[in-house]
């Protein structure tokens, strides 16, 4: 079987992998968008976890062969790459971060408790070994999937850039990165010959964060959807586990038919793209140490964030859900920890590349706390951060 992929071309699928793909738990990924609400600003961003999973498997195969993995071990690596995202909730990382749940743990639960377990055994693949790869017990195979420079990251950067139409995001040289991977004391590292390709990876990560993942339209869509989900959970319209079983459209349908006025109105605004407007935004670098602590506490406590939203709503005379505060997780550039094998030994990429050091330092500038409001309240909220950062 061959799947024609827009990023990697023809991807060969063997019989076991085909049977996995045909499982209902995997088919669900066809209906979960990779980038949740990014389509509100980049309408091409309708790609799904399904195609990303196939692409990750394809790259894992290449990386595995480069590192000398073959036979049964390579077959298991391919399968682990294929199923690594089956535990994602609807709307992907947005809901995962909102719920503070780990999709990898959910993936393991699904492998153990679904039709997938029997499909793997029937195909001669030990499900326990797939779980070991996901859980880091098989270190090299796991690092191919999840490390400072991994195939999951390479695929989603290429794929996201392609579907968003972001030209500079397509600059990642996947082939060069993979062929310069090395095994060093049971760890996957990068040969210094791949340094330029790694620098491009870091630059792409920075640009995609700044222009796509952190775009204000994407963030307001995320904030509005999370408001609806929180209300739905509070009123037993949805349960946490539902979000790991349902698709994006099923969740939207449930919210539309919740019978709760605030949820229905907010969902309607999302679907008709009548979005809240940005009142103000503050960058991470503009905050002092005390203000950073306040924001960190707010970001970790949904109830406290809602309390500030109510304060702002009281000042503006706004209804529930008409003013939202968006506090994304403070970004960490994992790629800045890439280990490079040089003639003088193993070093962090930021120690051998000035470009990597600069990009890593600039990455915090992509973080912003934002206040969104219905346009009729914009003039009433002149400096909302004075209230938030007291």
Strand-residue proportion: 5-15%
CATH superfamily of the largest domain: Hypothetical protein af1432
Radius of gyration: 22 Å
The total beta strand count reads 9
Structural class: alpha+beta
N-to-C series of helices and strands:
EEHHHHHHHHHHHEEHHHHHEHHEEEHHEH
Largest sheet: 4 strands, mixed
Q: Could you say what the CATH topology of the largest domain is called?
A: Hypothetical protein af1432
Label the overall shape. Answer: globular
| The number of domains | 2
Helix content: 40-55%
Unreliably modeled segments: none
**What is the mean pLDDT?**
90
Protein described:
By secondary structure, the chain is an alpha+beta fold. The chain folds into two domains: 2-213, Hypothetical protein af1432, CATH 1.10.3210.10; 221-331 and 366-388, Growth Hormone, Chain: A. Helices cover 54% and strands 11% of the residues. It has 21 helices and nine strands. The protein is globular, with a radius of gyration of 22 Å. The termini are far apart.
Structure, briefly:
The chain is an alpha+beta fold and 390 residues long. Helix content is 54%, strand content 11%. The chain has two domains: 2-213, Hypothetical protein af1432 (Orthogonal Bundle), CATH 1.10.3210.10; 221-331 and 366-388, Growth Hormone, Chain: A (Up-down Bundle).
Helix-strand blueprint:
Elements lengths: L1 E4 L3 E4 L2 H7 L2 H4 L21 H18 L4 H13 L8 H8 L3 H11 L1 H8 L4 H8 L4 H7 L5 H14 L9 H6 L1 E4 L2 E5 L3 H19 L2 H19 L5 H4 L4 H9 L4 H11 L5 E7 L5 H12 L1 H15 L6 E4 L12 E4 L2 E4 H4 L1 H10 L4 E6 L10 H5 L2
Parallel strand pairs: 4-7
Antiparallel strand pairs: 1-2, 3-4, 5-9, 6-9, 7-8
Helix pairs in contact: 3-4, 3-10, 4-8, 10-12, 12-20, 13-16, 17-18
